Amino acid sequence: MNKVATVLKVEGMSCRHCVNSINKAVGELKGVDKVAVDLKAKTVTVDYDQEQVGLDRIKEVIEDQGYEVK
């Protein structure tokens, strides 16, 4: 296992629906252990296993929800 925690800057999040959609989409990825969305800081922190899911895939899933990863 190669577990890491990454903080991503995400634009376009403004409400509880945003938090829920990102939590659900990213949380369903195999290898993701924890997702924490901070609306005020405009960040998404993801704890995941690099052997099971890549950072590019996590970013892609967030962008598929309609948000911009910086």
Describe this structure in words.
This protein has two helices and four strands; from the N terminus they run βαββαβ. The chain is of the alpha+beta class. The chain has a single domain (3-69), classed as Alpha-Beta Plaits, CATH 3.30.70. The protein has a four-stranded antiparallel beta sheet, with helices on one face. The radius of gyration is 11 Å and the shape is globular. The termini are far apart.
In brief:
By secondary structure, this protein is α+β, with helices and mostly antiparallel strands. It has a single domain (3-69), classed as Alpha-Beta Plaits, CATH 3.30.70. The chain has helices at 16-27, 55-64; strands spanning 3-11, 32-38, 43-49, 68-69.
CATH architecture: 2-Layer Sandwich
* Count of helix runs: 2
Structural class category: alpha+beta
Q: What are the low-pLDDT stretches, counting only 5+ consecutive residues below 50?
A: none
CATH topology: Alpha-Beta Plaits
Overall pLDDT metric = 96
User: Major beta sheet, specifics?
Assistant: 4 strands, antiparallel
Shape: globular
Keywords, separated by commas or semicolons:
single chain; 70 residues; alpha+beta; Alpha-Beta Plaits; 4-stranded antiparallel beta sheet; 2 helices; 31% helix
Q: SSE layout and pairings?
A:
Elements: E1 3-11, H1 16-27, E2 32-38, E3 43-49, H2 55-64, E4 68-69
Antiparallel strand pairs: 1-3, 1-4, 2-3
